[in-house]
Give the backbone structure.
Amino acid sequence: MTISFKDRVAIVTGAGGGLGRAYALELAKRGAKVVVNDLGAARDGTGHSDAALGVVEEIKAAGGEAMSNGGNVAEYQQMVEMVAKAKEAWGGIHILINNAGILRDKSFAKMEPADFEAVVRVHLFGAAFATKACWETMREQNYGRVLMTTSSTGLGGNFGQSNYGAAKLGMVGLAKTLYLEGAKNNIRVNSLAPTAGTRMTQDIFPEEAFQAFKAENVVPAALYLVSDDAPTNAIVGAGAGVYQSAWVTMNQGTLLPEDQRTVEGFAAAWDKISDRSTDAPIQNGMEQSMHAMELVQKAAAG
């Protein structure tokens, strides 16, 4: 079965190069009308260029339909204006891929607060602002597909990337709330942790790895996660042709008797409390309290 995006309007942020460009080209190839958004800044978020225009020309040369947008995802009003222009031209917004990002890597000890704020603002606030600008349209048309770009740094940490990791795990939390809020309006929200050889990673990866982790290898996962039959609330890893699923999990918990609810009692029970044999994915934020109440009620019932 061929997956088509005919009659769909898609916005891809940070699409002037790398992963965003690869997503935009394939979406257009499969029939989508694509807004290619890119501020055109350097990797650290400074400066400007006409990167988006080049991708639009590529799409048009291949027979596709696209428009460029130089809006800054970290400025909400610019995202509102971007969505308004797309709707004026094409009538709706069906797909949003939040891909824009910057890096300002330093150890936490050496990082200036401004560098922490700038990275969080582009990744997390930028994703929230772009999604908010599209959200009401998606609700009204009873259809939406939103993809957050998370990272293994957000899921597992990475030395020198406290700002990036905080933003990227924050995006997972955003996705997990929006999938619940969007469900009744057929809005599906997923998270993708890509590993790709792009401008963001070209001086981080060895050359051999840089070549293996081509952006095109991430495209299948990204486009499936914004397709008609996409799942929702998924966290997917993709890189070098390897595709993985990740989950936020919690175990069933350990009920401590009242006389053991002390610091010492907790320490003594730590092996049971941290046992992963009953781990299960968390589907919503109420599950922690629900599991706790179940254990309390079972204990009360004898």
